[in-house]
Structure formats: structure tokens, C-alpha cells
Write the C-alpha cells for this entry.
Amino acid sequence: MKDNLDLSVLFDVFKEIGIIEQLSRALLEARLPDGLIAPHFSVLSHLINRGDGATPIDMARAFQVPKTSMTHTLKGLEKGGYVTLRPNPQDGRSKQVWLTDKGRDLRNGTLQAMAPEMLKLVSEFDTDRLLAIAPVLTDLRIYMDAARD
Amino acid sequence: MKDNLDLSVLFDVFKEIGIIEQLSRALLEARLPDGLIAPHFSVLSHLINRGDGATPIDMARAFQVPKTSMTHTLKGLEKGGYVTLRPNPQDGRSKQVWLTDKGRDLRNGTLQAMAPEMLKLVSEFDTDRLLAIAPVLTDLRIYMDAARD
DNA sequence: CTTGATTGGTACGATATCGCACTATATAGG
DNA sequence: CCTATATAGTGCGATATCGTACCAATCAAG
């Protein structure tokens, strides 16, 4: 009985997480220029946080998506002038992804554009509760990541 | 400064939620028959939880997806024999979605197939922490749902 | 009733995701 | 060195998502 209870709580957690993901993605994409969606933004953000010059395969692994998906996402970013792909001098098979100023500006501008909405949320939602769930979500993500076969 | 701190925590929360959504979806889809993905399962589950006979537009609203997407998802379920679409006697424009035994079995069987993995998570992860975040996630989902313009 | 506006559903096209197959390059074993 | 294997990237096809346009049925105003 206790197991059943716990399992339904767990399924509920995943269900709520799915909905929140959908809503937060919509919030983000409403602020992106036409033709760009969440994965494009995530890639720009990753390049700013971790430094650019990474290879496409590195980023595919970081996001846990197939390399074909990353190729496609990068093609979209390159077409819009947000990143530049150059040959990797260390490995003739691969490339390196470099941010352009336009890419940096888009990422930072989008964050700023979302700030009002986020500040509103922080002001209207119990901040302590948000702070409390953050580490649990991180640990849950780490657990599931490790459990992935 | 405090605002900035809170905002980065909030962005982190959304980022972790995005990753957990991806991992939990992969967990689910690994147990679904070929050609079915998470939205198919969600529809079956919804029909079991809320009762079948709902119209496609009802379900599109429930999942907050465009009606064209729901048409497509239902077409896949119907093709596999998991649901039946019948004219709505109350409204000549619309249809009703009915579960088949095969649809019910798939949903229940998939839940059972995931149970071991979920039980493992529950046994290895601090259950109290999972129980603690559940209501916060629900309230956050409710808040964001209401804030959606 | 009649007629204009609204609503449920679908066809279609654009883009996204991802598995498979292929090429080019790199690496490891001998 | 040579050769077998592994790896990075891409082309292609199948399916998914979703906006636009459209049709048929309903509803609402008179």
C-alpha cells in the first residue's frame, strides 16, 4: 500500500514536471525570434556558460540528443548568424562552434526579456518553496542521469 | 542582488525540470510499442482517469496542444486499435474518443512495466524529499497555468 | 427562418526529432 | 607502416508539432 502511494506520488511528480516544462518552454519561445525554438536558445546559453569552441558531438552529449538533431539545431543557428562553425584544428573529422556577437546578444536579450515575468513569479510565489525544491530537483536529475542505462 | 540570485535559482529550476522531463519521457517511451510515444500514452491515461467519450477538442485543451496535434495523436492511437473515434451524437461537428480493451491494456501494462524502475527510485531516493516537492510543483504548475495569457 | 459569426475537425506545408546508412578521418594492434 | 575498428558529421526518410486555411455544423441576432 505504501509502495502504491509512493508510486502514484512519483508519477504525479513527473506529470507536473511535464506540464511545467511545457509552460516554461512556451514562455521562452514567445520571446525568441521567428524560426528559433528552445533548443536553439539552450545551445547559445550552453556556449556562453561553458565557453564556445565546443564540438557538435560534445554538445549532443551534453544535451543527450542524437548527433543528427544537434547538426540540425546548429544549422538553424548558423543560418541565422548566431554561431559560426569552423573546422576543428585538433581533429579533421570534427568542427568547432563559435558564438557570434549576434548570438551572444540574442541569448542575453532573451534572458532580459523574460526577467519581468520571472520577477513577477518570484514576487508572487513563495520564494522559500522554490529555493527548497531546487536542490531536490538537482539530486533527482543526477540520480536519473546515473540510472540511465 | 537578491533578485538576481532568485532569478538564477528559478532558471535553474526550469533547467532541471527540462532535463528530468526528458529523462522520464525516455523511461516511458522505452516501454511503449513501436510507433507510440509519450503523447499517445498520456491520452490513454487521461481517458482512463477522466473517463472516455471526451471530444478531441476537449483533450487538446486539457493537454494545451493545438487541435491539429491532437488529431494527429488520435489518428496514431486509432490506427493501432487503442481507441475508437465515433461521431458525437450531441454535436454533428465533433467526435468522441472511446478506449478499446487494447488501449486499456496498453496503459495498464506500461504502468506495470515501469513499476520496477520507479520502485527502485523510491527505495534509493529519499522519499520524504519527493513527497515534499510534489505539492510545490503542483502549486507552481497552477500558478504558471493561471499566468498564461 | 435567415444570415453572420463561431466552433470542431482535417488537409497541407514548414520545421523538428531521430534512426539508419554512409563518408572521411582518426586510432589501435600487429 | 597497414589495416581493422571507432568516431564525427551529414543525407535521407519516417514521424511529430503546429500554424494557416478550409469545410461543415452550430449558434446567435434579428
